[in-house]
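Quick review question:
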């Protein structure tokens, strides 16, 4: 693809909210763009995988595709979390099945049964014959792994920036919700959407579309007009909103006044792929990863204080609004083929999209990111709760 598209991508992704227009449509459909994003982002930055609590038993693992690279995060029998290449060192067969699973002592290749320990050391080669093979030269490559707030991230890069540095200052905004209470992990569904990964991310972080796309679902709980920007930069961003509660006046009188902050939610965006919603009750997320330039895979999961939180009603509600998002994202993807028109101006409610674009510009084109900004609502989240 021409460099003209990359130049245009760089220019528009660097715009401030006052000048920002939608990204060029072809960045959502060109293979060369995804190749650049794979190299500079998915193979070189911290990518969210799952929660530590989803891998608590020795031998439990989560295997997934990370921009074409098969990886597995494993809780070893020694209790350590490690990230390994999930490709057999013999002739390249993917080893563990995708998703969550449990390793029975060793990892055995389904093709010729080369067998590895749960730390990736090659242990056994059936019918080796007279040929000499140095097992030490055939171990599974290891990747960098980092944990933050109970969440597990991998980095396929050579020398990653420490994860604490990557998310520095973000924890300040979450402290009122005491997320360290959320130790119960649950896994949701996995979906495939026929939409570029960036379309799904942009859709997940902005609240502008709630009143239209989710009229009967999200809008009844977290209306567009109650949403606001909190803080952000090229490294992470958070938005918030006030929830509509159906708590009656009498209930409030009986239970006492709830501190204001607990009536709000926080949307936590850790680019490229993690979008979480934190309330006083729970921390639920989706993770979005590209399959190819016009499709992506969406994983969901959550953390809460107790297992009781995960009731049928909530699950049905999530499935409902996720279905609405899938329909609209796949519809937008159709528009991305157009060459006769271009995208227009972003509105103020889409400010968080500018942080995502700053992330893209900094990683893909080495653009110096703008300094982080904070809105006037931000103090609600780090000042002691009232009430
Ligand atoms: S490819 Fe794995 S044992 Fe042959
Ligand atoms: Fe949505």
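Suggested answer, residue by residue:
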């Amino acid at each position: 693809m021409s460099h003209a598209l990359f130049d245009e991508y760089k220019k528009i992704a660097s715009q401030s909210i006052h000048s920002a227009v939608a990204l060029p449509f072809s960045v959502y459909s060109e293979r060369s763009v995804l190749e650049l994003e794979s190299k500079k982002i998915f193979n070189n930055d911290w990518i969210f995988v799952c929660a530590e609590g989803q891998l608590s038993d020795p031998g439990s693992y989560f295997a997934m595709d990370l921009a074409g690279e098969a990886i597995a995060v494993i809780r070893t029998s020694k209790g350590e979390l490690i990230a390994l290449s999930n490709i057999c060192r013999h002739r390249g067969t993917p080893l563990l099945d995708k998703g969550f699973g449990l390793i029975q002592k060793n990892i055995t290749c389904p093709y010729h049964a080369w067998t590895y320990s749960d730390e990736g050391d090659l242990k056994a080669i059936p019918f080796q014959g007279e040929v000499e093979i140095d097992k030490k030269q055939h171990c599974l490559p290891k990747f960098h792994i980092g944990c933050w707030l109970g969440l597990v991230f991998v980095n396929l890069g050579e020398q990653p920036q420490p994860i604490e540095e990557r998310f520095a200052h973000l924890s300040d905004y979450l402290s009122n919700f005491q997320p360290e209470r959320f130790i119960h992990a649950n896994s949701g569904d996995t979906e495939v959407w026929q939409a570029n990964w960036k379309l799904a991310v942009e859709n997940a972080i902005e609240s502008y579309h709630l009143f239209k796309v989710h009229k009967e679902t999200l809008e009844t709980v977290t209306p567009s007009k109650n949403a606001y920007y909190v803080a952000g930069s090229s490294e992470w961003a958070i938005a918030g909103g006030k929830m509509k509660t159906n708590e009656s006046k009498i209930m409030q009188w009986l239970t006492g006044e709830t501190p204001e902050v607990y009536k709000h939610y926080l949307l936590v965006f850790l680019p490229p792929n993690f979008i979480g919603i934190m309330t006083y009750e729970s921390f639920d997320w989706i993770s979005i990863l590209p399959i190819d330039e016009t499709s992506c895979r969406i994983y969901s999961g959550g953390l809460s204080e107790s297992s009781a939180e995960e009731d049928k009603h909530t699950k049905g509600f999530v499935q409902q609004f996720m279905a609405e998002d899938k329909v609209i994202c796949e519809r937008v993807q159709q528009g991305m083929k157009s060459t006769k028109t271009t995208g227009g101006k972003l509105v103020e409610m889409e400010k968080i999209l500018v942080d995502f674009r700053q992330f893209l510009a900094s990683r893909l084109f080495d653009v110096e990111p703008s300094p982080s900004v904070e809105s006037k609502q931000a103090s609600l989240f780090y000042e002691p709760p009232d009430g």
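Why it works: Residues 48-147 form a domain with the Rieske Iron-sulfur Protein fold (CATH 2.102.10.10). Residues 88, 90-91, 93, 109, 111-114 surround FE2/S2 (inorganic) cluster (ligand 1) (CB under 6 Å).
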